[in-house]
């Protein structure tokens, strides 16, 4: 009986060597931790025998270690090489039996092992809990099983997790590949790089060509080192939308209290990861992140680790350590092939590896069917040398010749056995690589499909057989929504029907797509186009439908929709462009819009109505990123041509007029913009009535122009009417209604009605976050306006937090050069100047001024306004002369840009008067504040905050002139009006009472 033999190391060993297969590292780590906590020294010896050395020699080498050798027995331990059971039995009897007192073992498998393993008298750990497992390990080594003593003072090590226990949070991780082979050095390098990284810098990217096994390596890392983490979350990162959704799904898994909206959950999850609360030991895997520019901002920072798989080495530019994944080395290839195809000898596996150039994916696919085939390796290699009938399949020249031919053989094999699987495979290549929603095809009426697909789609048995064959040869994998490899999903075809969503590797996709028969190409591309059209919900303005558009848009390119003449396909493209604009996916939208403009001009002609449609959406996207000059050119051409051809009352002409006016506002050509918008609004009212959504949009835009003119009362009246009607005609939570709330609250704030503005904007922000998501640009604008409302109302603490949060979010979502980011940075700089770090304020302000100067030019009011802000910073750091020169130039520039009575000019004048007083010129300062009071009273009213600021400033100038009587009178009247308007305890009132000279902050806006 095993239990009757003398325990190894009964005298109390000081050193224990643990021999383990890499696959069982978690067990080795846990056992080693248990022993070290009892004062023993542990040496970990990974077991990896090569084919060219006898097993007995490897076992004898273990005896060179001091103390007992603890072997972790599993089927993996005996498969490495691999070696036969006979060879193992001989080696065990030859080496272990004579030295049985030096060896101990534990078993972590229920699989059959070589019969001679009984010599180890292994303790079984497969069906016991952690406490009993520890007792059995200790007993097998002849050690005391008493409870472990308390940790030494200062020992803060966390105990290794028991391998049978999964982390507290675990999601989306692919099943472990039981045929995983080699890669030990790469796994170690990835582990060391993550462990050595500082907080927030633990990011490693596994990059390499398609087919080298990056995903498999990441999955093995998870299983091998997973015991060191409390959270492991796998994210399919080939598409931004699925990446965001998976991150959002992490929030409830972490136990965070959030709303149901995924934008809110996304923010909560990222914040929790950054803080390391409730878990600091987390690992996130971003699989297939081939476009770092699209998702780098979603990669979390914090105390945990991030593992990325990608073909693209540009991740090195985003603070990631790069680890290049090569093809297998020859020993790994041979070991893998023999595990995948046990009937092959060592020599045959080696020859096959040479022929297939050690590429893991091709070795997997080839060995899989070769093991089931009667074909010899020599016959297969001969086929590789001779090629295959190119009428059957031709593959891309981007891959090595052996790879091309190997794929040809595999596809020909599929064609001979299950021909419909090849049809399905080819159909899939008209979707984007990665997750392929083939359920969209199955939702089409069967009688609309080509004959060769009709029977396949309509017959669940044939459908399942085709998919199973593709999966058998590792051509595709089952995929869940947002996951690479999770489970089969039942579809509409019946319970248990697999394949609603498949995952196809990019390399497989590319090869299959190349040069398929022309008839198949024509048939299949039309099927996918119709499937995408049928999936279009036709309401891109409805935020509830955005996830469906997010699923559709990646496939437009691969279905080559821009070459279609079908009006339904055109509408699909236009709806997707609208969705991209509203959801903030500007870069992807601009790329699609540019391609659509070029393709449709060639396909349909320069003056086809679709050109005006796509131009409208394309210009909206360009305007969103600040390209006002580019959009003006596009829209003016449409505006003038449509007016000449169809007249001023044509609806498409009026739509173009609205876009042109918006671009003119961006260029600060406010007079022309106001004139065009006014004509558009009047025409829409006459043609469509006051409640049509187009009329309301024109009314909204007219209010924007009035606000830019500084006519805040008129803008408020129009925005109020627009808001009320949109709430009635649309719905309170419609994104356009919410946009009107931002505008109306902005008007209230600019008129000094801070309490009303804050109340409305606070409520609107809460709804924005739920409906639009926290990272939507419109939500960020709502939060930014709320920050200003809070600031003006005197709540500096909440305002400062929100200013920083909004700027950080916008930089992450849109980039630091986006116009919205620059606008937010201007606000953050102003706040930091007065209530934060003035050096930080200066750095941000310099970037803002430079950005506006580069994008909008010297004469734009935004350039003048942000220079006025910067002058206040220079004054604050003691650079008075430079500040004076800059503010005088800003005042002159703003006067030239918008006129002397515009509120922006009046604000510049208030700041300029302060600098004049400061440098010893109180006469001109007083003259300037007197002029400013007169103009502000006329433009805004006597009790507007800007007018009140000018009056307080004028009192200070009068005191500098030693005109105390007039100063006291002016100041007293202004203080009374401040108390009546803002309240006696408002921060502005208190500051004025303390004789702190007021200043003015310029706020750039986005049209």
Task: Offer a quick outline of the entry.
The chain has 1007 residues and is an alpha/beta fold. It contains 43 helices and 14 strands. The longest helix has 19 residues, at 586-604.
How does this structure look, described?
α40 (922-940) packs antiparallel against α41. The chain is built from 43 helices and 14 strands. The chain has 1007 residues and is of the alpha/beta class. A 6-stranded parallel beta sheet has the order 6-8-9-10-7-11, with helices on both faces. Residues 1-12, 387-401 and 480-498 have low confidence and may be disordered. β1 (15-20), α1 (25-36) and β2 form a beta-alpha-beta unit. The longest helix is centred in the middle third of the chain and has 19 residues, at 586-604. The radius of gyration is 35 Å and the shape is globular.
Mean pLDDT: 86
**Largest sheet entry:** 6 strands, parallel
Radius of gyration computed on alpha carbons: 35 Å
Adjacency order of strands in the biggest sheet: 6-8-9-10-7-11
Strand content: 5-15%
Uncertain segments: 1-12, 387-401, 480-498
Proportion of helical residues: 55-70%
Q: Which descriptor suits the 3D outline?
A: globular
**SS field, number of helical segments:** 43
Q: What is the strand tally?
A: 14
Specify the structural class: alpha/beta
Span of the ends, CA to CA: 85 Å
């Amino acid at each position: 009986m095993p239990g009757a033999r003398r325990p190894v190391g009964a005298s109390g060993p000081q050193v224990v060597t643990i021999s383990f297969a890499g696959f069982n590292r978690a067990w080795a780590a846990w056992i080693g931790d248990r022993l070290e906590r009892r004062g023993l020294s542990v040496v970990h010896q990974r077991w990896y025998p090569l084919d060219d050395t006898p097993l007995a020699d490897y076992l004898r080498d273990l005896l060179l270690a001091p103390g007992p050798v603890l072997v972790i027995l599993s089927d993996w331990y005996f498969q490495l090489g691999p070696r036969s059971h006979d060879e193992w039995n001989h080696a065990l009897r030859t080496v272990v039996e004579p030295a049985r007192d030096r060896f101990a073992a534990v078993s972590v498998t229920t699989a059959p092992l070589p019969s001679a393993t009984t010599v180890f008298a292994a303790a079984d750990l497969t069906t016991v809990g952690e406490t009993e497992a520890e007792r059995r390990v200790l007993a097998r080594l002849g050690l005391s099983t008493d409870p472990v003593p308390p940790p030494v003072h200062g020992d803060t090590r966390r105990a290794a997790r028991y391998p049978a226990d999964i982390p507290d949070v675990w999601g989306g991780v692919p099943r472990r590949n039981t045929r995983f082979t080699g890669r030990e050095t790469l796994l170690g390098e990835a582990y060391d790089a993550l462990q050595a990284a500082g907080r927030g810098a633990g990011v490693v990217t596994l990059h390499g060509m398609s087919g080298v096994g990056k995903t498999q390596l990441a999955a093995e890392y998870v299983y091998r080192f997973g015991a060191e983490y409390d959270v492991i979350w796998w994210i399919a990162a080939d598409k931004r939308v699925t990446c965001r959704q998976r991150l959002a799904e992490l929030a409830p898994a972490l136990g965070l209290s959030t709303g149901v909206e995924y934008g809110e959950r996304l923010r909560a999850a990222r914040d929790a990861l950054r803080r390391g609360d409730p878990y600091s030991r987390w690992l996130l895997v971003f699989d297939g992140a081939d476009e770092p520019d699209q998702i780098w901002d979603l990669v979390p920072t914090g105390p945990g680790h991030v593992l990325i798989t990608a073909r693209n080495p540009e991740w090195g530019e985003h603070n990631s350590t790069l680890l290049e994944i090569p093809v297998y080395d020859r020993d790994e290839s041979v070991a893998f092939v023999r595990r995948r195809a046990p009937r092959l000898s060592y020599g045959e596996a080696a020859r096959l590896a040479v022929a297939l150039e050690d590429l893991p994916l091709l070795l997997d696919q080839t060995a899989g069917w070769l093991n089931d085939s009667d074909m010899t390796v020599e016959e297969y290699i001969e086929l590789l040398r001779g090629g295959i009938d190119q009428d059957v399949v031709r593959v891309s020249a981007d891959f090595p010749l052996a790879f091309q031919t190997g794929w040809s053989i595999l596809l020909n094999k599929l064609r001979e056995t299950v021909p419909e699987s090849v049809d399905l495979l080819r159909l899939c290549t008209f979707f984007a690589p990665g997750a392929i929603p083939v359920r969209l095809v199955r939702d089409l009426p069967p009688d609309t499909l080509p004959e060769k697909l009709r029977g396949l789609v309509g017959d669940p048995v044939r459908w399942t057989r085709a998919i199973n064959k593709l999966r058998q040869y590792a051509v595709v994998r089952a995929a869940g929504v947002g996951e690479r490899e999770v489970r089969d999903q039942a579809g509409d075809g019946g319970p248990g029907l697999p394949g609603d969503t498949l995952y196809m590797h990019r390399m497989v996709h590319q090869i299959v797509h190349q040069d398929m028969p022309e008839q198949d190409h024509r048939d299949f591309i039309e099927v996918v186009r119709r499937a995408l059209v049928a999936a279009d919900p036709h309401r891109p303005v409805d935020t509830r439908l955005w996830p469906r558009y997010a699923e559709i848009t990646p496939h437009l390119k691969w279905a080559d929709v821009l070459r279609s003449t079908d009006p339904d396909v055109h509408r699909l493209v236009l709806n997707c462009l609208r969705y991209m604009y509203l959801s903030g996916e500007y870069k992807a939208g601009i790329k699609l819009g540019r391609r659509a403009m070029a393709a449709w001009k060639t396909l349909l002609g320069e003056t086809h109505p679709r050109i005006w449609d796509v131009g409208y959406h394309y210009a909206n996207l360009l305007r969103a990123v600040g390209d006002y000059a580019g959009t003006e050119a596009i829209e003016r051409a449409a505006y003038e041509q449509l007016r000449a051809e169809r007249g001023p009352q044509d609806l498409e002409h009026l739509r173009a007029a609205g876009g042109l006016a918006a671009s003119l506002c961006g260029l600060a050509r406010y007079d022309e913009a106001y004139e065009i918008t006014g004509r558009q609004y009047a025409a829409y009212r006459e043609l469509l009535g006051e409640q049509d959504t187009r009329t309301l949009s024109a009314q909204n835009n007219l209010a924007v122009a009035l606000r830019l003119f500084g006519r805040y009362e008129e803008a408020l009246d129009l925005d109020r009417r627009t808001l009320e009607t949109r709430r009635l005609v649309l719905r309170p939570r419609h994104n356009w209604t919410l946009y009107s709330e931002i505008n109306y609250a902005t008007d209230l704030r600019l008129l000094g009605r801070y309490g009303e503005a804050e109340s409305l904007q606070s409520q609107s922000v809460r709804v924005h976050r739920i409906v639009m998501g926290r990272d939507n640009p419109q939500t960020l604008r709502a939060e930014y306006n709320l920050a200003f409302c809070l600031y003006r109302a005197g709540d500096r603490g909440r305002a400062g937090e929100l200013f920083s949060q909004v700027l950080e979010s916008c930089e992450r979502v849109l980039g630091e050069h986006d116009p919205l980011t620059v606008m937010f940075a201007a606000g953050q700089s102003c706040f930091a100047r007065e209530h934060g770090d003035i050096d930080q304020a200066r750095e941000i302000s310099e970037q803002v001024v430079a950005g506006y100067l580069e994008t909008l030019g010297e004469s734009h009011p935004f350039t003048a306004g942000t220079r006025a802000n910067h002058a206040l910073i220079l004054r604050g750091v003691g650079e008075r002369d430079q500040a004076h020169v800059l503010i005088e130039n800003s005042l002159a520039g703003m006067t030239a840009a918008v006129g002397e009575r515009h509120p922006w000019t009046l604000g510049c004048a208030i700041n300029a008067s302060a600098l004049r007083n400061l440098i010893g010129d109180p006469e001109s300062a007083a003259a300037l504040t007197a002029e400013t009071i007169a103009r502000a009273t006329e433009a805004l009213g006597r009790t507007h905050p800007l007018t009140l600021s000018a009056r307080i400033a004028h009192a200070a100038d009068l005191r500098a002139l030693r005109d105390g009587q007039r100063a006291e009178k002016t100041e007293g009247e202004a203080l009374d009006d401040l108390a009546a308007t803002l309240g006696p305890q408002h921060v502005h009132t208190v500051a004025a009472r303390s004789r702190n000279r007021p200043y003015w902050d310029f706020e750039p806006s986005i049209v």
